[in-house]
Amino acid sequence: MCLRELRHLWHIAKMTKVSRTVLPLSQIFFLIVLMGFISALSPQAVATEKRSLVLTHSESLRPFTDVLINGVESSALIDTAATIPLIDDNYLDLEAVGEDAPGVEETEARILGIGGQRFYPVARLPNLSAGSERWSDLRVAVNNESRFPIQKSVLPISIFDTRVVDFDFKNDRVYLYDGRPKRVRRAHQTSVSYQDVNSLIFVPVKINGVRGRALVDTGADISFINPAFAEQAKAKLDEERTALLRGSDLTRNRASIYQVRRIVFAENEFNRVAVPVLETDLFTELGFGDEPMMIFGMDLLQHFRVQVDRGRQKVYFVRASAGSRVSASREIIAGPKDVAVR
Does the pLDDT at position 333 exceed 90? Predict the structure, then answer.
């Protein structure tokens, strides 16, 4: 029986004389069940319930949230460019986590960053929670190199079981839900299909009309491009400025600053932009070689509500703007001289 027929049946029941009299108990029970069924199928109930994580403020623009690692309070970065949860090895300490300390596996996890690739041991973590999200017996990479400490734990968005991961940076929330990405009133929403490479999100981008790919990276404070992109786009070197990009492994990388006329992606346009150019093995390790590549860091992403629809493999960029394109000043991408990027 379809929803329209059920509504019609309920309407008839209300309009008949029987509905204005004392009904037998069996009919009352039937009507209650019928009302509940209709309510469950109503448009208001079709909207999927959203869970959310609260973003905490930090010195950087990156999205951190409070977590409990085996009952120990901590903070974790929600990183779209991570492929496995990463924790510090102090959570393996029996005194720190109690009797449920995880065991280290023989396998290793490869972690890629601007400083190259590193291999970390893998362990099974008994308990991890963030907001109302709960995980048990979770496979995690463990940072055991005291020379390269990570200040916070890292959560990849692949850890969430919902179709949509919705970064509402303006309101310090990350919403988790199924269905379609939420429409935002009086806001301009554009979308673009992305390429999934080892659970990483790559979207098409054009710089000065030259096509390339960009990694959506909420774990990066600042955006940058590789030398191949700068060369093919005929970007202009700014001889008076440089940037020192610091990776999560604390590797410091000197980057040149180039001026580009236009960056376009998903109908969004940034004009007259200063962007760092960095020589890194990151893209080669991912199999892209010398293709024109870019990192979308938080200096760019913060201007949007970023909705990752993993069901349709699309990224939605939402911004309060009446026009179909967004223009930005040259300082949107150019960042401080000592920033954290991974």
Answer: no
Closest to 229 (Cα-Cα) out of 253, 201, 258: 258
**What letter does residue 229 receive in the DSSP assignment?**
H
Give SS3 for 141: strand
The string of DSSP letters for 87-134 reads: EEGGGG-HHHHGGGPPPEEEEEEEEEETTEEEEEEEEEEEEEEETTEE
Residue 102: pLDDT over 80: no
**pLDDT one-digit tens code per residue, 104-163:** 555 788 887 776 778 888 989 999 999 999 999 999 998 876 544 456 789 999 999 999
> Cα separation of 259 and 236, whole Å?
5
Contact status, residue 317 vs residue 169, Cβ threshold 8 Å: no
pTM comes to 0.77
Structure tokens, 139? 């496979």
CA 328 to CA 36: how far, in whole Å?
50
Instruction: Read off the tokens for 234.
Output: 């005929």
And the tokens for 312? 């349709």
Contact 78, 152 (CB under 8 A): no
